[in-house]
Amino acid sequence: MVNWQGVMPAVTTKFTAKDTLDLAMFKTNIRAQLEAGVHGIIMGGTLGEASTLTDEEKQILLKETVDMVAGDVPVIINIAEQTTKAAVKAAAVAEKNGASGLMMLPPMRYKADDYETITYFTEVAKSTALPIMVYNNPVDYKVEVTLDMFEELLSQPNIQAVKESTRDISNVTRIKNRFADRLKILCGVDTLALESLLMGADGWVAGLVDAFPAETVAIYELQKAGKIKEAINIYRWFLPLLELDINSKLVQNIKLAEVATGIGTEYVRAPRLPLTGQERKQVLQIITTALQNRPTLPNYQNLSTI
């Protein structure tokens, strides 16, 4: 069972200079996430550079994470496959290796129509006992899962949540009006996170949390406790950093931020390459400015005492 709420980092994959998995630094980052109070771990997404990982590497990362969190928070793995057959297999492997749930994109490469998309999600849902969060990102992946499509998909009890990345903030209200709590909503766009939470989203699949876990969780916990002004103050400081997530170089950007906060490395897997030149200088300037003005956080994990 997954309680689809709170902050769930879409974690990056750490590599060494020799392009092998850096499990030591990976665990350092996961530990920082857990200490900050995140509510789940999501792996194998864009930030995890999953399209460049081998099946063996994905399984190693999942097993290591499951062992490390020891049931304290759910471990969700992303499925982004080209065929229904491959997606069903990936779900089975994830279940075998201890995943708590799945995040699923529509079929990759082929632009499925509504019927094909519904059938794809349904077949995978029927094949597994794991709960599923549908990743709805028509901006980047060109397939929108509409509310009418969700009406059909929710006949499958293990389709339980949506990573809402349409960039339409009013969609949170539309989903709540139509499905109430049957379909949990996790914002998938860092720059719309607080707005989405205030409109009723249940959680936040976050990116810059990889470098700034405490600040991210603090925003969630403060708004949940009704301390909106305090949440807004941190969010305003955070926004220039959050904008690094809505960029084609989001992986490189966030890994640079992880280096700056001591919980990551800059290594990416080709064809991605580390940032260079003016682009690198601009990102580092944003990170440096943020660190120079980093807010003092309240005791957000014990708000009842504040």
From TrEMBL:
The active site is at residues 135, 163. Transmembrane segments: none annotated. Pfam families: DHDPS. Pyruvate binds at residue 205. InterPro entries: Aldolase_TIM, DapA-like. GO terms for molecular function: 4-hydroxy-tetrahydrodipicolinate synthase activity. Gene3D superfamilies: Aldolase class I. Keywords: Lyase. Belongs to the DapA family. This is 4-hydroxy-tetrahydrodipicolinate synthase.
